[in-house]
Amino acid sequence: MRDGSGRWRLGVAAFGAAAIPFAVIAALDPRIGLLRPRPAAEAQGQGPGAHWQHSRGQDSRGQELSGQELIGQELRGQAEGASQRPARLPHRPSSGEEPAPERPCPVCTAAPAGPDGPASIRGTLPDSDIQIPDVSRERSTQRERLIGWTAHPDRISGSAASLDLVGLVFTAPRPPGGGYRPLAVDLAGAPDRAVVLVAEQPLTVALTTVPPDRAASLGVEAGAAFTLAEGRPDRLAGFRALPYGAAEVAPVLDPLRFGPETLRGFCAALRLWAMQFGLPARRIRYTLVENPTRIALAGEAVRSDGTPRGRISGRRLARLCQT
Question: Residue 123 pLDDT more than 80?
Fold first, then answer.
């Protein structure tokens, strides 16, 4: 009212109208905190002096704090400050913005079930073996039966003057509906010789000997199951077969599949069977036959209805295995 015209009054009113929104914002903004509730420490009488004491490394009683307590106090202060910060709102794309692709789960091995099938189980098996039915009970029963047909070790050593290892290679399919491959082994013409069959397919062996109750004339080294057509005690001189618990067996020594590992495994088996029969390596020979159904020993000859693929004499076999 300087000149009575009301100019100052209008100016003050205009300034007040402009300042009111800023005053409301200052009162309600949590960052300014004019209306924020007082902390419990201030409500209990701890004012700015207490904060100054903590900043100087003293507690509320004025005592000096150790370095470890100062670090703990600092970490607690940071944690409390983080807990008091407002949570960040999730990002929401605008109408014209494409949503960000979801990140793949780094620890999920199975994909969620879809409408067309169940969830994937890839990578859930402990090994990479080919899956087959559980035949452990059947194999255990077969093994016990074969052990019942195996001679006592004391009857095996010295029971033969020489030993024939016969490798069997099968390239023709088995007869339709057939089980194990049938194989007849005739030792009637060689009463002083024993045979060890090296096979990779299931066999049913029919053995003929003279005398009929001859003991420990047949051994088997197989990567597959086998059985005897007519089993009786003392029939076998022993066996090693993967399905019956053997850790490893000799591979068929085939020129088409020859290699250092094949020879090493074969020679290891040769030493075992030489020890089993109590024979030197030079008294053991090897014969390879393809697709046989019958094998007969007559003196030094090995006859078969299969295709002969080769023979290694005892001396050459001993040099080959360096025994």
Answer: no
